[in-house]
């Protein structure tokens, strides 16, 4: 690890580094202002409340890694949390615990954060290696725990989806994913019993909705047909966006509901596989059976306490669920927003990183027939934070 040290009288760029090199107790108000000005240039930090930013300025440290430096290895016990200020780092995972067998599963860019395993002293779930010269903000364990207790939602929103969400999973989940790679995986995923964690998240959301906005779950009539105890897609998105800073956009909320729908924690009344931000009806698993009892006061209180954690969990797995839903669409049905989401995913696939923007766009718009032979090539994108391994199939072109 290479740490940059500076001396007085240098450029403004080096000046803020010099301020971060000081011990927290030695930083003046002017030092904090200089650091704050630099952090506000990073888009991800602009969402933070001012008190949180100020505390980060007083306790964080600066690290600069040259290309190819290993920050920490899979299995290490961590001591710090990190945020990327410039450059990028590869996330490498080994299924055998042998470092030489590690494969790169994603890349962390500017504005992403990692290392939250220090909250419970669990071993690092991946090896982090600088892909290029990179600047990091580092916060030590004790200070980060204190910040997390006060500003969990804001800090969770900074976590890199590929890595932060991977840490909430398990190795067993990843082995199961590989066994499910077949043409029926979509239906099998949708029809299976929800995992315990997803089932609980669905129950928590239902209970809180019944407590705060009970009008959202009711019998609805459409075209002379009555649909019992269901919600409207747009209302579910509206409600979720207002609950937490972790829910960044409406499309993010759609992905979170899609994650529940894929595993049966939420169902479309006509068994459609995709969640849509439209006037369509969806029903929670607990409401599938008639005369399901309403949650009692104790259950409502527990659900209120669990809501932030449930939303954080869904916020982490939602982007992958949204990507899978988009990839199930035929190319002609994909919107501009859909193509942008796929494009962002392609940027994390090392095999496609060298392609130009023009070729990446052509890749997204490729049309193909499933029964054709010898006209496709595929890239398998291992998404370790979700119950699926995505395979991108792309039509070959003459050039």
Structure description:
The chain is an alpha+beta fold. It has three domains: about 10-170, Jelly Rolls, CATH 2.60.120.10; about 180-325, Winged helix-like DNA-binding domain superfamily/Winged helix DNA-binding domain (Arc Repressor Mutant, subunit A), CATH 1.10.10; about 340-395, no CATH class. Helix content is about 40%, strand content about 20%. Helix 9 (about 235-245) packs across helix 10 (about 250-260) and helix 10 packs across helix 11. It is globular. The two termini are about 45 Å apart.
The CATH architecture of the largest domain comes to: Sandwich
Order of helix and strand elements from N to C terminus: HHHEEEEEEEEHHHHHEEHHEEHHHEE
State the domain count: 3
What is the CATH homology-level superfamily of the largest domain? Jelly Rolls
Distance from N terminus to C terminus (CA atoms, Å) equals 43 Å
Instruction: Write down the overall mean pLDDT.
Output: 76
Question: The biggest beta sheet, please?
Answer: 4 strands, antiparallel
């Amino acid at each position: 690890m290479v740490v940059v040290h500076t001396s007085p009288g240098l450029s403004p760029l080096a000046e803020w580094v010099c301020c971060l090199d000081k011990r927290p107790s030695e930083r003046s108000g002017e030092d904090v202002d200089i650091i704050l000005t630099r952090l506000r240039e990073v888009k991800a930090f602009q969402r933070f409340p001012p008190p949180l930013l100020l505390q980060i300025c007083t306790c964080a440290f600066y690290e600069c890694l040259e290309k190819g430096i290993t920050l920490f290895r899979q299995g290490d016990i961590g001591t710090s949390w990190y945020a990327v200020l410039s450059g990028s780092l590869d996330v490498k995972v080994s299924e055998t615990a042998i470092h030489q067998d590690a494969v790169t599963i994603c890349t962390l860019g500017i504005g992403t954060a990692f290392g939250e395993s220090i909250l419970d002293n669990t071993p690092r779930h991946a090896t982090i290696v600088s892909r290029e010269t990179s600047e990091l903000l580092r916060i030590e364990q004790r200070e980060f725990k204190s910040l997390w207790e006060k500003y969990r939602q804001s800090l969770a929103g900074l976590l890199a989806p590929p890595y932060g969400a991977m840490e909430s999973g398990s190795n067993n989940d990843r082995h199961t994913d590989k066994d499910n790679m077949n043409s029926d995986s979509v239906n099998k995923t949708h029809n299976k019993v929800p995992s315990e964690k997803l089932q609980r998240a669905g129950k928590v959301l239902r209970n809180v909705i019944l407590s705060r906005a009970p009008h959202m779950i009711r019998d609805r009539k459409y075209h002379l047909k009555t649909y019992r105890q269901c919600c409207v897609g747009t209302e579910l998105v509206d409600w979720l966006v207002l609950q937490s800073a972790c829910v960044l956009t409406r499309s993010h909320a759609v992905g979170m509901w899609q994650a529940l729908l894929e595993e049966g924690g939420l169902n479309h009344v006509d068994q459609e596989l995709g969640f849509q931000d439209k006037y369509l009806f969806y029903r929670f698993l607990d409401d599938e059976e008639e005369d399901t009892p309403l949650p009692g006061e104790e259950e409502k209180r527990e659900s209120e306490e669990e809501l932030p954690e449930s939303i954080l969990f869904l916020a982490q797995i939602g982007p992958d669920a949204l990507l899978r839903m988009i990839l199930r669409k035929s190319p002609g049905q994909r919107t501009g927003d859909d193509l942008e989401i796929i494009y962002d995913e392609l940027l994390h696939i090392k095999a496609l990183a060298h392609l130009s923007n023009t070729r990446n766009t052509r890749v997204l718009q490729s049309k193909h027939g499933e029964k054709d032979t010898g006209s496709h090539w595929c890239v398998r994108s291992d998404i370790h934070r979700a119950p699926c391994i995505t395979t991108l199939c792309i039509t070959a072109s003459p050039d």
